[in-house]
Amino acid sequence: MTPIAPPASETPLAYTVEDIVTDALIETGALSPGEPLEADVGQWAFRKLNYLVDIWSAKKPFVWSYVYNVYTLQAGLSPHTIGNSGVATFDTSPNPRPTRLESAALLLNISPGQVDQIINVRDHDWWAVNQVKSIQTNVPTDVYYDPTYPDGSLYFWPVPNSANQVRLQFWQAISQFVEITDPIGGPEGPGTLPQAYRAAMMLSLAETLCPGLNKSVKAETVKGAMEARKAVFGNNDKSPRQRSHDSGMPKSGQAKPDFNWATGGLPGGPPE
Predict the structure, then answer these.
(1) What gap in Å lies between CA 51 and CA 55, rounded to an integer?
(2) Which of 55-69, 110-124, 182-196 ranks highest by mean pLDDT?
């Protein structure tokens, strides 16, 4: 028997939104494998997928990484805006304005190299009680991010009076799609996503399509969607940091009496 030779080349794995939509409709039973996708049904399911991604992009468990982007400050400007409107101070195209600012740093060119000077990320309560909001300096120490729409607003304080650079850390999540032919990595993005996202997206979409199709969600679909989303959450959740006392360091709080053989384990009581 003549052995079967492997293919000369392999096509890179690349999914489009239409692939996800088609598979989700097959999962619901509304479409059979190989059956062509009707344009109006496809566009409806495409919109439903964007609704789903809209929710995911605002939830931290669906954030798979963080991006560190460098921007140049404009002297005397407050606030600096960030987004994809085309008029923002810091452009994020094709991605929308960030949901949350995780960290910020002022880039200082100090010998022998560049140094990140940490900028404290503040909340709206801190900004509200700040009595002198327009004071200027060449080294801003704090920033308050207001996620206004379509562009977010960055209030650096004191207001920068020189064109230094800042490094801003934001969430990286799935972007909403423009066309059904877009790759699943977003417009102009790759045709792949991190592990478990593709399955979570397809199966979760199938769940949301069933009411509009007047169909019941299959138990297998619900189970598969929950497992896929759990896998995404598990990859993105950080383990809490635990701290312990170094040897010989005193402990805080009220000290408990040592065990005494005469009194036993109960304070002031007889031996147990």
Answers:
(1) 7
(2) 110-124
Task: Assess contact for 170 and 100: CB atoms under 8 A.
Answer: yes
Q: Write out the DSSP string of 8-62.
A: SS-PPP--BHHHHHHHHHHHHTSS-TTPPPPHHHHHHHHHHHHHHHHHHTT-GGG
Residue matched to tokens 């929308």 = 96
> What percentage of the chain has pLDDT greater than the value 70?
81
Radius of gyration of the chain (CA): 27
Domain positions in the chain are 17-61+175-235, 65-172
Residues 15 and 12: their CA atoms lie apart, in Å, by 10
Residues 154-170, mean pLDDT to the nearest whole number: 94
| Helix pair 17-28, 197-213: axis angle to 10 deg | 50
Say which amino acid occupies 204: S
